[in-house]
Amino acid sequence: MDDAAGNQVPLAEFLRVEHLGIAVHSLDAAEPMYTRLLGVPPYKRETVESEGVVTSFFRVGPNKIELLESLNSEGPIAKFLTQRGEGLHHVAYAVEDIRASMARLRDQGFQLLSEEPKAGADHQWVCFLHPRSAGGLLVELCQPRQDSGSSSVA
Fold it and tell me: Of 19, 26, 43, 137, which residue is 20 to 30 A from 54 by alpha carbon distance?
């Protein structure tokens, strides 16, 4: 995209891949295999009730891998596992201003799965884009929460 002066203007404010999310049936079964595969143990487990998941995070150099286990048989991860089995669930991108990114993507025709950012795992504000509007891939936007106890994004 070019500005009025003909200069190239970046379309995206994505800073980097924040993490890859991988759906698993059981964290207890998956963590030892991923520890052997990645050569590092997970650094944390966290329950995210609002998303119906328990997560386990691995850090591999500057990268993170998030394993996701469903809290119940009706949650989004359980449904994903039933339809597709274990494997890549989503790609998460770090953004500087999640609200601005959400507004830009909404204006560009992407379908957001929530109108407001939600408190996600690993001290992040998150918003997901529906796969049908993003080439079949579930995309997550992430912005670090400055105050992990706060309930809204500034």
Answer: 137
Identity of residue 152: S
The pTM for the full model equals 0.85
CA 14 and chain centroid, separation = 13
Number of domains in the chain: 1
> Distance (Å, rounded) from C-alpha 100 to C-alpha 103?
5
Instruction: Note down pLDDT in tens along the chain; length 154 residues.
Output: 555 666 555 555 899 999 999 999 999 999 999 999 999 999 999 999 989 999 999 999 999 999 999 999 999 999 999 999 999 999 999 999 999 999 999 999 999 999 999 999 999 999 999 999 999 999 999 999 986 444 455 5
